[in-house]
Task: inverse folding
């Protein structure tokens, strides 16, 4: 059974802190790993990672994948209150001729002023 | 602007009643998905569809049904057989081939 585990489940930090979120996976037919941010309603896409060791960066957010140890981390530096959200990790797996996505439970991040 | 529209935003179901959640997209995406989100459990796949008139069960399809008569539309019916329907339902679409999904704003379903 495909499994994606995120940790921690929740955390509270102060503005300006750095946050590291973890996503580990055990799946067959791994294709890629994706990170999403969900503030109130619709998750919005952050990163898609397919290769080990290559960091993807967007502003204060960055992410990297380790396909040998089967995990990814999402870093947020100099956090702001607008970073408060649920961060979802999803792994794309291949079934049939195309794939589906296995999601983790998410990490709730609260950034206090 | 292209996007996914889910309606209604809030829905209440009476015992024994079927209800239908709407999902429309104008992104010209072939693949569409329905997910259920419960607190602390992330997103669980209910049904997905790659092309018109074809769809597949996800991990938690029991008590739900879908149709895909048009590329733009993928409605989800929550039947009376679904005994615990209270949840947040998200519709998504994508280009097939493991590309990032675009999500709607969701429908929150509660039991009266």
Result:
């Amino acid at each position: 059974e495909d499994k994606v585990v995120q940790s921690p489940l929740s955390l509270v930090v102060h503005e300006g802190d750095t946050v590291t979120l973890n996503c580990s996976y055990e799946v067959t037919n791994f294709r890629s790993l994706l990170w999403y941010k969900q503030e109130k309603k619709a998750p919005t896409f952050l990163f898609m990672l397919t290769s080990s060791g290559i960091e993807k960066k967007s502003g204060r957010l960055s992410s990297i994948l380790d396909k040998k140890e089967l995990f990814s981390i999402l870093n947020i530096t100099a956090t702001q209150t607008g970073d408060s959200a649920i961060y979802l990790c999803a792994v794309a797996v291949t079934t049939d001729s195309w794939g589906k996505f296995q999601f983790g439970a998410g990490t709730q991040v609260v950034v206090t002023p | 602007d292209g996007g996914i529209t889910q309606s209604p935003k809030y829905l209440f179901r009476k015992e024994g009643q079927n209800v239908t959640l709407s999902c429309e997209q104008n992104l010209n995406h072939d693949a569409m998905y329905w997910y259920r989100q419960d607190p602390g459990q992330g997103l669980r796949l209910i049904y997905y569809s790659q092309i018109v008139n074809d769809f597949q069960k996800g991990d938690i399809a029991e008590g739900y049904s879908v149709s895909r008569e048009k590329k733009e539309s993928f409605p989800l019916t929550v039947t009376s057989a679904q005994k615990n329907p209270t949840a947040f339902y998200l519709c998504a679409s994508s280009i097939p081939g493991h590309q990032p999904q675009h999500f709607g704003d969701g429908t929150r379903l509660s039991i009266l």
